[in-house]
Design brief:
There is one protein chain. Helix content is about 30%, strand content about 25%. The protein has nine helices and 15 strands. About 45% of the residues are buried.
Length: about 290
């Protein structure tokens, strides 16, 4: 089955009010849907622009940002659940720092399905910033989600740099891995980019990256953002020779849109020049 995917190079705004955020979210979704996209991906921590609604005393403090944003969590879910239904598209809205029952925070990426379902994947491998400064804790479950286009998985930023995680998701049936990312240096962006390309090659699947871009000097959390969105593929018959189906202009604010054939993953695993997916277990002999 062929489907168009739109992956965002998303800018952090300083929001005037909640209505400004709702309008921005709908504008982005509308622009993707007008290009016939059915699966939309936003970046990691795209939600952090919501901290601007609380004033300087809050948005200049990492801990206060996390606490204040919990009051908008349900409204945030409602916005994207409504948009997914209205435009009949799957929306991975980036990630939101969610306070769980224990009082800890998790970096949670929600997946909104047109039938009203809301799924999520928590980040599993935490960066130094999340561990040492933000005190955000890792999740405890690796998931795969059923959709009309087959199984979809989410690997949040740093998670994409760990091959065993993606391998388990693909073994569970995912031919598409969505990677919302947030990186503040070119090196950081390239680490995630290289990870995404490696996961696509190893598993003979599609991996899609979406970064936050541009500067938000008012925010201590997402003040500098570097990256380009891309759709990565297996490197074999019928796919691009460099494994890059589409890539955006570095640091531009834009959608990157391309059509993928998820069924082609099964074909290439059976008839490709190489059998990376099938031969994975052979490593164990060494």
């Amino acid at each position: 089955m062929n489907v168009k995917i739109a992956t965002a190079q998303y800018d952090i705004s300083f929001l005037e009010n909640w209505q400004h955020y709702q309008s921005k979210a709908e504008r982005w979704v509308t622009e993707a849907v007008e290009q016939d996209a059915k699966i939309l991906l936003f970046p990691e921590y795209a939600s952090m622009e919501l901290a601007s609604l609380f004033g300087k005393d809050v948005y200049s403090s990492l801990s206060k940002q996390l606490a204040a944003m919990q009051s908008l969590h349900d409204d945030y879910l409602d916005v994207f659940q409504t948009l997914a239904k209205k435009y009949q598209c799957i929306v991975q809205a980036g990630s939101f720092p969610v306070k769980i029952e224990s009082g800890a925070y998790r970096n949670r990426a929600y997946l909104f399905i047109p039938d009203g379902r809301i799924e999520y994947q928590d980040k599993l491998m935490m960066t130094r910033f999340e561990n040492e400064q933000w005190l955000i804790q890792k999740g405890d479950q690796l998931k795969c989600f059923d959709t009309d286009y087959g199984k979809i998985a989410i690997s949040i930023c740093y998670d994409s740099e760990f091959p065993m995680l993606a391998r388990k998701q693909v073994e569970a049936g995912a031919n598409l891995i969505l990677v919302p990312s947030c990186t503040d240096t070119l090196a950081g962006y390239n680490r995630v980019k290289i990870g995404c390309q490696a996961r696509a090659l190893e598993n003979q699947c599609y991996v899609v990256q979406s970064p936050v871009v541009g500067n938000a000097p008012w925010s201590e959390a997402v003040d500098v953002n570097v990256g380009a969105a891309a759709i990565y593929t297996p490197v074999d018959y019928g796919f691009p020779d460099d494994g890059i189906l589409a890539v955006g202009e570095l640091n531009a604010v834009q959608w990157v849109v391309a059509e993928v054939s998820l069924s082609a993953c099964a074909t290439i695993r059976e008839q490709g020049q190489v059998f990376n997916y099938r031969d994975w277990p052979l490593q164990n002999a060494f």
